[in-house]
Amino acid sequence: MKIIFETPKLILRQFTEADAPLILSLNSDPEVVKYLHEPTLKTVEHAAQIINDIILPQYKNNLGRWAIHTKDGMNFIGWCGLKYRPELDEIDLGYRLMQKAWGKGFATEAAQHSLDYGFEKLNLKMITGRAHIENIPSIKVLEKIGMNFIGEGIVDDCPVRTYTKANPNI
Ligand SMILES: CC(C)(COP(=O)(O)OP(=O)(O)OC[C@H]1O[C@@H](n2cnc3c(N)ncnc32)[C@H](O)[C@@H]1OP(=O)(O)O)[C@@H](O)C(=O)NCCC(=O)NCCS
Question: How far is the CA of 73 from the centre of ligand 1 (A)?
Answer without folding.
Answer: 22
